[in-house]
Each structure stands twice: as structure tokens, then as C-alpha cells.
Amino acid sequence: MAFERVGPAGVQGAEQEATGQQQPVELTRQDLNRMAIRSFFLQASFNYERMQAGGWLYSLLPALKKIYTTREELAAAMKRHLEFFNTHPFLVTPILGIVAAMERSRERPETIRGIKVAMMGPLGGVGDAVAWLTLLPITAGIGASIAQQGNVVGPILFLLVFNAVHLFLRFAGVHYGYRLGVSAIQQMKAATQAIARAASIVGMTVVGGLIASYIKLSTTATIPIGNGISVQKDILDKIMPNLLPLGYTFFLYWLLRKGYSPVALIVLTLIIGVAGHYLGVL
Hints:
The chain is mainly α and 282 residues long.
């Protein structure tokens, strides 16, 4: 009888096969760069129900196909990542890297979902501040000032500088996120739930700030007493500024919990806005 010599790698593989565990695959630089390139299509299938979910899955798919080798596992992972997703397009790649690292380590779907949802809100707010309120005005201002002197270098310089920063954020972000995810998961595996909870709190804080900044709702109604009491200025604003936008946000959240779709809520908001303006109360 011939005996085959088995080295340490063979023993480890045999042990993993016996215990039903699979050795985590390693995502290469090419895999991560492919995800970054696909992230340019993040909003190609944008819709008001799941926002960027289709583009998010398309960007993450190279990693999922390499991690999950069976058709059933891949289908389940794709279904998980078709849930609602929305963040700033320039800063989506750090989330891609971290989520790819977590999927590679076979973290629990609930933990991955919590980290993904918790990060998309804060990075969305940071991306707006960095890209649209800082980078764009500075580079466009420099390019416009040069162009006003009749120099064609102005618009070219604007496009080069703006997109150089844009590309750096895309490609460096996915590599940084993946490295951070691999090291953090191995060292903090027991604390991932606490991290997800903390990130969720930060995300909800940002959402609370966005309610006051982006939702504009006020009433023109007055109470006919004396010279007239403004419901908005004399009552609501003195109770709490932006009380009406906050109340309407909670109302829409309550409807979402009741099962109404985001599209139905958009139509409802449009009807309320038009009717309120026509009646002279909004």
C-alpha cells in the first residue's frame, strides 16, 4: 500500500473540510480596483424606493462572486445587498471595502447590514460637505478666474484637479476600507455589535440634522385674534424651531412602518403641498 505524504497545508485543509469550515478567500488589488470602477455606475439604476441599491450590488458583485462559490450562497448574498442604500457617490468605496472584508470573514448578515446602514448616512453628509461645498467651489472658482482672462487652461485645470481628487477618493477608499475591515474584524470580533450600535447612533444624529436642514415646511395660517396671531411664528417656532418639518417626518415614518411604499409617500407629499398652497395654509 502506498502512503501519500501530507504537509501542514494539507492537514489544515483536511481539518477545515472535516469541520465544514472554508478558508477565507483573499481579494486582490485587481478585485478591489474592479469594485472601484463599477462604483462609477452607483446611480445608474437610481430609484425612489431603494435609491442606489442596484448600483451598490453591481459594485460589490466581483467580491461576492469570489467569496461565495455556490449558487445558493451567492443568491442569498445578492438578495441581502439589494436592500435600501444611499450615500455620497464619491465616498461609497470605503463602505464597499469594509463590507467586502466582512463578507470575506463570513460575518453575520445582521452585523454587515448594521455597519453598512450606519456608515452610509454619515459618509453621505461628509461627502456633500467635502465634494459639493468645498472641493467644487474652490476648483471651479480657480478655473473660472483663469477662464475670465481668456485662458483656455481654466476649465481644463478645473476638470483635472476636481477629478484627480474624485479618483483618489474612489480608488484609495476601497483599499483603505478593505484593509481596515480585515484588521478590525480579527481584533474586534466580539465588539462588532457595539460598534454597529455606536455607528447607528452617529448616523441617526446626522439624519436628525438633515431634517432641520433639508425639509422645508411652514404654514401661513393665522388665528384671527387682535391683529392676527401667526401659527408659524407666534406658536410653532416658539415651541421649537422646525417643529413642523420634524412632525411631518415622524408622520411619514409612521406610514412607512404601516407598510406604505416610498413612492406612495412622495405622491402624498406632492398632493399635500399643492393642496396646502392652493388653500393658502402652506
